[in-house]
Design brief:
three-stranded antiparallel beta sheet, alpha+beta, four-stranded antiparallel beta sheet, elongated, IPNS-like_FE2OG_OXY, Iron_ascorbate_oxido_reductase, Jelly Rolls
């Protein structure tokens, strides 16, 4: 199988995806493994919602940002066209981002992420991704 896009995580809030139900192509990596699984979209008029790095930050890791990729169709579906629509969400750049107290308590009582603005968070993620 050929990957069309390199694996990635989204830096902001939620990503809402209307995936093509026939061809598909979205895969997610299972945590702590090298195993990728396809994301099925079998329910008519449904959406796939990915939580991004900011959601992981706000929830102190309760909701994880998933590593995902898009793969090209296999030989039997190569003749089919594919249409996906994606909508990215995120806060205003001046929004203060820190783990929510309720999530900190649910994850052991210690904040796992620093308090930053959304702009600082995005710049840190971009800088880190450019050094890989």
């Amino acid at each position: 199988m050929f990957t069309k896009k390199k694996k990635n995580e989204h830096f902001q809030g939620f990503t809402i995806l209307r995936q093509d139900p026939v061809v598909g192509g979205l895969e997610v990596k299972l945590p702590s493994t090298d195993h990728w699984i396809p994301v099925s979209c079998d329910v008519e008029n449904s959406f796939v919602v990915n939580s991004g790095d900011l959601i992981q930050h706000w929830t102190n890791g309760l909701w994880r940002s998933n590593l995902h990729r898009v793969v090209n169709p296999g030989p039997s579906d190569a003749h089919l066209s594919r249409l996906s629509m994606v909508f990215f969400t995120g806060p205003n750049e001046k929004t203060f981002v820190e783990p929510l107290e309720c999530c900190v308590q649910l994850t052991g009582g210690e904040a796992l992420y620093p308090s930053v603005t959304a702009s600082e968070h995005l710049h840190m993620k971009l800088q880190k991704s450019n050094t890989k």
